[in-house]
Amino acid sequence: GAVVSQHPSWVICKSGTSVKIECRSLDFQATTMFWYRQFPKQSLMLMATSNEGSKATYEQGVEKDKFLINHASLTLSTLTVTSAHPEDSSFYICSARDPARFYNSPLHFGNGTRLTVT
Amino acid sequence: AQTVTQSQPEMSVQEAETVTLSCTYDTSESDYYLFWYKQPPSRQMILVIRQEAYKQQNATENRFSVNFQKAAKSFSLKISDSQLGDAAMYFCAYRRLNSGGYQKVTFGIGTKLQVIP
């Protein structure tokens, strides 16, 4: 079945630095990928929708300049947290759907990235 | 806007017994998908079961089944013969059938299921 790979699984960075998270679809081409953020014991909150070859669509309240999304190819989307602050510490999960099965395809999730900003 | 409500923060079930997790949602759409996802301690989101709103028949996947009540906007998950591996957070989710380019998924807040040996 379809697999989405996310890297790294966890990362620790210092305040003020930037960190990049990669999301890859391994056996299908994903024109659209989704980035979620999950706080402890809370649900998944959609941050943005990543569209291959075009600008990402951000949800209300998500800072575009802070969370940079690049979807340069049909199998790779990246989320860069810029000038990280401790409050950016969270669990970030990417997901994608297989467009070959548009109407019947559920989201496939990566394993998530735990970001800790010190 | 669509909302998904899970009113049970935590549930527990004895191993081999049956448990039902509740979910209600609000939408003005007539066509949509509903899902139950499982998130074990590994944090990997795993699709458990899905239901197309236009189908009257309740979806079933082995020990997992749903009770879909479209008029009541209710979508409960029944887990039969509960196993220790079923212990996880369970998220109910909603997705529009066609939102013109991408399909935003809305998640409930989750229900933590504990399975007692």
List the secondary-structure elements of chain B in sequence, H or E: EEEEEEEEEEEE
| Proportion of helical residues of chain A | under 10%
Largest interface: pair, residues per side: A-B, 21 and 22 residues
The end-to-end span of chain B amounts to 41 Å
Structural write-up:
The complex is a heterodimer of chains A (118) and B (117). With 118 residues, chain A is mainly beta. Chain A contains no helices and eleven strands. Chain B has no helices and twelve strands. The mean pLDDT of chain B is 92. Chain B has 117 residues and is mostly beta strands. The A-B interface holds A 32, 34, 38, 42-44, 46, 49, 51, 57, 91, 93, 95, 97, 103, 106-107, 109, 111-112, 114 and B 33, 35, 42-47, 50, 91, 97-98, 101-110.
Short structural summary:
With 118 residues, chain A is mainly beta.
Structural descriptors:
heterodimer; A: 118 residues; mainly beta; four-stranded antiparallel β-sheet; 11 strands; globular; B: 117 residues; 12 strands
Set down the secondary structure blueprint:
The complex is a heterodimer of chains A (118) and B (117).
Chain A: E1 4-7, E2 10-13, E3 19-25, E4 32-38, E5 44-51, E6 57-58, E7 67-73, E8 76-81, E9 90-96, E10 108-109, E11 113-117
Parallel strand pairs in A: 2-11
Antiparallel strand pairs in A: 1-3, 3-8, 4-5, 4-9, 5-6, 7-8, 9-10, 9-11
Chain B: E1 3-5, E2 10-14, E3 19-21, E4 24-26, E5 32-39, E6 46-52, E7 60-61, E8 64-69, E9 74-79, E10 88-96, E11 105-107, E12 111-116
